[in-house]
Structures are given as C-alpha cells and as structure tokens.
Design goal:
InterPro entries: AB_hydrolase_1, AB_hydrolase_fold, Meta-cleavage_hydrolase
Number of strands: 8
Number of domains: 1
Helix content: 25-40%
Number of helices: 13
Protein name: AB hydrolase-1 domain-containing protein
Structural class: alpha/beta
Largest sheet: 8 strands, mixed
Strand order of the largest sheet: 1-2-4-3-5-6-7-8
CATH architecture: 3-Layer(aba) Sandwich
CATH superfamily: Alpha/Beta hydrolase fold, catalytic domain
C-alpha cells in the first residue's frame, strides 16, 4: 500500500480536538416544518456532557473546505481554555445530513439547523448567549444565525473572509483570477485533479503550502477522497446560497461584530471587506491580516487567536442592553 498524507492530516486534526477536551457527538433532530418531514442529523465536536457548561459557549462554523477539524485545528486549544467550544459539521458535510425531503439548505436553513443544535446541547441553558465565529461560507451562516436568533441568543459575532455582498459578477471575476479555465466555482472549489487542487491552494493561501509540493498522485488521491463525498449535494448547496441574490438583503447586526480579512485574499478580495463593514452597522471592527490569504486562522493562527479572544472577552465585559 502506498503512502498517503491524508490519514496523517486527519490524525493531527483529531488529536488537536481531543487535546482541547472535545469529543465527537451526533444528534438527530426533527426537521423544521418549513424544510420537510423526518429528521436531520448533525455531527459536532464539544466537551463531553457533564452538566451545565462552566464556560461561555462559542460556536465555530467552518467554510466550504473538506472538514471542520482542518479549518479550526489551530484554534480549538486556545479557545477551549476560555470558552465551551462547539464545532459542528454543517449540513451536507461529514455525517451531518439534512431532512431527506428538503431542498438543498440555504445559509439561513443551515443557521436554523445550528439553532436547533444549540437548543439540544446537553446542559446548555436556553437563555445562554452564544458567541459565534464563521469563516468564508461559515461567515454567511454565522451572519444568518445572528440575525435570525437576535442578540438575546447570539452574542458577539466573528466573520472571517466572508463576502456578504457577493454577486454573480464577483463569481465571474473570481473565475477570471483563477485563470479563466473553469466553467463554474464548483469546478474549482471542489477539485478532483491535482492541477485544480494546486490552483485552489494558490488562491486560498498567501504562503506556499507544503502539501502543494507533493507529487501529483498523492494530491489526486487526497482530493478524490475529500471532494467526491456528497459532491452533488455540495454543488446544489452552492446553488442554494442566497447571498448575491434578490432574496438576500444585508442589514446591520445589533451584536458586536469582528470582521477579519486577509490582505491577499484572492477568493474574496480585500476591497470587499470595507464594503461589508459599511453595511454591517456601527458595532463593527475590521482587522486586516497582512501576508495572509483566504484562511488567516490557518496561515496566522497565533495572531488570529489573540485578536478573536481579545474581541470576545472584551465583548463579554462591556455593558450590553440585551443582558438587562
């Protein structure tokens, strides 16, 4: 049997989660009446149930990458020392599955599923305010959750490299930046060959990644394992995104918001960060990470953790009319 780096990466990711005191859980929940009949399944990582959490809850929402454990591997250790961290797999990722009869979930449907998960978490009071952080597509979901649940349920919000003003023209510009060889964003964001995977890494990261220097056969084996799973469902998931359509309107949030952006992001360019900030309201702080791309939590994890923790802890201490 030949060598594969994928099991090594999976092992390192899971080890980081276990070291942070997080364990895998799966919960089956009834479908929202508006989404269909039957049940939906959500897989998530959280501390083992042991009564009411001693620390304030923090929900980490992944983007469109292959798995949540990769995207938040460098955060869970630092965050778990100050928060009761919960890291779910969004619907259509991992073993999380939507209702069988429902259409592909939009980001608002994803947010509704996460709200149901919060209500079902063992020991978490229904009155607990939950801090939320989302990266890329996860930022779309974090915004939808914060707006729908309101400040009484969702507290401070971290949105990282998420273009909440994305349009079809932005999608076309992204494909042009990629080289104009791919017909759709799905072809590029869910690669099945080594060349496309290398191009996606170049677009996602500012610094060259060690994995991009691996032989083609290793990269090809990895991406086929990672991106073949639920491929059709994820393509439909992309089509279900309402950001950039008439169905979606970006309105200010009442919560404190930290907007994080890499200055070399080629998926959602930096100029969009300023436009998003203007639309999100007065309670928004923008932090620009130098020499990073689309995933600053992976490229500059130490600074990311410091900035996010400072923001979340300061938001907890500041007076808030919603707590009265």
């Amino acid at each position: 049997m030949g060598f594969s780096f994928l099991p090594v990466m999976e092992y390192l990711s899971r080890r980081a989660f276990h070291a942070a005191g997080l364990c895998p859980h799966t919960v089956t929940l009834p479908c929202d009446p508006g989404e269909g009949s039957g049940t939906q399944t959500i897989h998530y990582w959280a501390p083992a149930p042991a009564g009411e959490p001693r620390l304030p809850p923090l929900l980490l929402i992944h983007g469109f990458g292959p798995m949540a454990t990769w995207q938040w591997r460098r955060q869970v250790g630092a965050f778990s020392r100050r928060f009761h961290v919960v890291v779910p797999d969004l619907l259509c990722f991992g073993v999380s599955a939507p209702c069988p009869s429902s259409p592909a979930p939009s980001e608002s449907a994803q947010a509704a599923a996460l709200a149901a998960l919060l209500d079902a978490l063992p020991g978490l009071p229904a009155t607990a305010r939950v801090a939320v952080a989302g990266t890329s597509y996860g930022g779309f979901v974090a915004y939808s959750l914060a707006r729908a649940a309101g400040p009484a349920r969702v507290g401070p919000v971290v949105i990282s490299n998420s273009d909440l003003l994305k349009t079809a023209e932005d999608d076309r510009a992204f494909l042009q930046r990629a080289g104009g060889e791919w017909a759709s964003a799905a072809d590029l964001l869910m690669p099945l060959d080594a060349r496309t995977a290398r191009r996606l890494m170049e677009l996602s990261f500012y610094r060259r990644q060690v994995t991009s220097m691996l032989p083609d056969f290793l990269i090809r084996e990895a991406v086929q394992r990672l991106f073949s799973d639920k491929r059709e469902e994820k393509i439909e998931l992309m089509k279900a995104i309402t950001v950039g359509t008439d169905e979606f309107q970006l309105t200010p949030l009442e919560q404190d918001v930290l907007l994080v952006w890499g200055d070399h992001d080629q998926i959602f360019p930096l100029d969009k960060a300023f436009a998003v900030k203007r639309c999100l309201g007065e309670n928004v702080r923008l932090e620009i990470f130098k020499e990073t791309g689309h995933v600053p939590q992976m490229e500059d994890p130490n600074r990311f953790n410091e900035v996010v923790l400072d923001f979340l802890l300061a938001s907890q201490k500041s007076p808030n009319q919603h707590d009265q």
